[in-house]
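Quick log. Single chain, no ligands specified.
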Amino acid sequence: RAPTVLVGATILVLLSLLSGEGGIATLAYLFAYAVFLDDRTWSKRLTSLLPYGLITVVWRIAWTAQGYGVSGGTGFYVDPLTEPWVFLISLVERAPILLMGQLGFPPSEIALAVPDQWMWALLGFALLVVAVVGLIVLPLLKRDRVARFWALGMLLSVIPVCATFPSDRLLGFVGIGAMGLIAQFLAMAFESGPSRRKLPLIAGVVLLGVHAGLAPIGLAVRSSMPVGPKAFHEMLHVRIPLDASVAQQDVILVNAPSSFHALYLPIHRKLEGLACPKHTRILGPGYWGTTLHRPDDTTLVVRPVRGFLDWKFDRLFRGSPVPLELGERIELTAFTVEVKELNAGGWPAEVLFTFGVSLDDPSLRWLCWKDGRFRPCDPPGIGETVTFAPATVDLWQ
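-> predicted structure:
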């Protein structure tokens, strides 16, 4: 019977890996079981894990061979094997925030809204939440090996999801261990008898209020708008009417408030059966305002007030691990991009765009953000400088 069970278990681990990269967290609970619940000798415990480790290695090799994964440069995603030091830093920064979202409040996505200069405060608060919960459940961990199994599985399964930005949607495997650990703690906290203490009872009431009271309400609200208020996101998408001739043009978005949202222009149009532009090019962020200068017929100098890549979502495709250097040139289909100046943070402050055709060529369709929406516009005249005001987003219109 044992070989049959082993084969079945190995197949299930493989299916978990094939369901998504996060399936590797299955190994966290297998390891935690071997450490705390398996009563055999340590050599047999470790031997029992070898088939699962082997199938994971085979999966990773096949996964990489098919071209999946990320390469250096993105500010959101990290490959633990090719960028181990970057991943270690991400682990230190993201694990406490993810555990905070799982064990307490607020949700881990708050990390996306916090400015970089205040991330240390959020990290400190997250560590405080995790430490308080840890101290609360410590007596349970000391006396119950099943609780230790849940806790170790939870902590180890948070490691893989630190390869991307914090989000509660990634906490499926982490939640398995947290669910078991908190359930056991609540059973201990509300048990009657002479050993009953007030502190565990108070902590149990708080945890019950968070997980049985606030969490279901939060789930309903966030399910209706998983990425934030719908009006906000719809406003930032490019919804301007474009005729069929756009299929022969490159759409140039001068000052999109959110490059992340603007990227969905061709996807939305494709889904709606509309003509899609040949290319969609975003010159720079416009949330804080942008200045354009046209020195000649084919060149445009773009200078955002806070520089490029100031907002976290703008770093989706290029982050601090592989910074843009002064003088660096990038060749694209519609134009060549050259970094002319860096700001104090090391991000591009001014970028030169050299187009392959005149900026006035009909093959280019210019759109700019003005008065709360995208509108058709013309490029500046030769020698002219144009300044766009900071973006305004009206959620009520």
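The CA atoms of residues 76 and 165 lie 6 Å apart.
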